[in-house]
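Progress against Task 2.4 (sequence-to-structure conversion) is shown through the following example record, which the project officer requested during the mid-term review.
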Amino acid sequence: MHELTEREKLVLNLIVHNFVMTVGPVSSRQLCKKYNLGVSPATIRNVMMDLEEKGYITQPHVSAGRVPTDQGYRVYVDSLMKSEKLSRKEKDIIYRDLRKVSRDIDLILQKASQVLGKVSHQLGIVLVPHFYEGIFEKLELVPISDTRTLLVISIRSGLVKTIMLELDFEISRENLETTARIINERLHGLRLKEIKETIDERLRNVSKGSPNLIHYFMRSADEVFNFENWEDFYYGGTSNILQQPEFSDHQRLEALMEVLEDRRTILQVLSRSSKEGKVTVTIGEENKLEKMRSCSVISTVYRVGNMRGVLGVIGPTRMHYAKIVPLVGYMSSMLSEILNN
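Structure tokens generated for the chain above:
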């Protein structure tokens, strides 16, 4: 990466800021007219030519001004950007909207994605925490019919998953309750992954409850306690993306929509780029997935107990980074606080 002079840094910063705000290519004349730079348009034009030669800006048309490249955005985010603090009103919106939903974690996460989209004017995404990392609190067995039982698994952080069990034997309500109590005594406080791997040993020599149901859990542990594919996500603000000029190009829009429709892909896009305690910015060509290379992803990790989730914002590379980076960090803090309390 080329070393920039102070004047080149100033001009690049102004080009990024103006392009983000106006969507139009930025000319030397515009900058001189708008800012008191103390030099002529010709001097600024020469600086622009140097920045273009170094790969930080480009000229979309011969007679047009300049726009930032992905490399230019990277220098801006890493070295030039001054983060904008969220306003009190924006913080109140986030706090109020998250607090007013029910205690159901899924509803809170869904609302968080919508709030991210609303405040950022982009697409907000929240990945559900890795359920597989959760610590088992208890299970409940609810009879639905003679051979169908609803299994409700509760994790210490408050997350709940339900599974319909199709049994090939009948079992009384009393036997269900006794069996659930014994299983809870043996498995409480263990990670789900640990339960899956050691359930045979832990339920061996159980003398009470339903032997058939105990054997069912031992035999079907790989299926019943397999939550590796239960990961999901919520997104909000699709209409914001549709309003972005970049996505008037139907091919770009179609590529992004294909990504959003592929659950596994979007999980990989956010999970790979997110780090604990840090807001990560992935810009354009830095995305490994070709269909995402007209987009930037701003993401970070949030926590629910010992489980890790990811949230972020997706939009065009022409994104208000100075506003959205602190927004993503603040949302992570608020979401972790609300979910853990």
